[in-house]
Specification:
This protein has 278 residues and is of the alpha/beta class. Helices cover 42% and strands 17% of the residues. Helix 3 crosses helix 4. The radius of gyration is 21 Å and the shape is globular. This is Alpha/beta hydrolase.
Length: 278
Amino acid sequence: MTSGRRGRSAVVAVMVVVILILIPAGLLWAGQRSVIYLPSGGVPPAAAGVVPGAEDVRLTTEDGLEPGGWFVPPLGRDREAAVLVANGNAGNRESRAALARALAAEGFSVLLFDYRGYGGNQGSPSERGLAADARAAADHLAERGFGADRTIYFGESLGAAVATGLAAERPPAALFLRSPFSSLADMGERHYPFLPVRMLLWDRYPVAERAAEVDVPTTVVIGDADRVVPPEQSRAVAEASADLFEEVVLPGADHNDAELVHGPEVVEAFVRLADHVL
């Protein structure tokens, strides 16, 4: 009887462990995109009210959506080059206004845009959907006369994955990656080590793998106190890059610190890359 009870107790214990694993795994599988994509801030205001001289634009995606964006012209000197900014996973284009102003002050035209499901846009975000939105942004710049040789992609965090994917399809003059992760699966394993993340993910974003395919000058900016994207993952992207121009490390900088988002060291690093290719 004693051994029987022990056997049943062992079975119950195993079942409890399995349930404790399966429930959060199921929740993650069903609601994973609500964890990955965090649109906030509502519909952005008119561009000119936030960045002087900026204009509101509408992109056109291959699947019939019209994401909103802002086109910010250069201030003063015109380098006759454009920056396509791929946002991170939170906020909307208004959150990147300071970055746009800083880049415009250096003579660049800047395109800020919101992904589907962000900034009041129709649709729901996904890896495939964000790739389509980025292609629409590149098309918009091309229509304005900015060919690939006069366009630099600037991707931050999740946007670094979007920008790298776009660069693998449509190589720009250069690629600037701020706080890139090596892959979404690597990020998932870091933040959810108790779950079989690689089996559950719908979206993959293999950034390091794609960076190895992008043979254009690339700068990777890393905050060495980043608590969202582990610095070692950003270093892995730099190491994998087919044409690494520069790896820039900001000591003590966390993921959303202003110095890492749009600070002078970031802008100066971008200008160095642009001067190199333009």
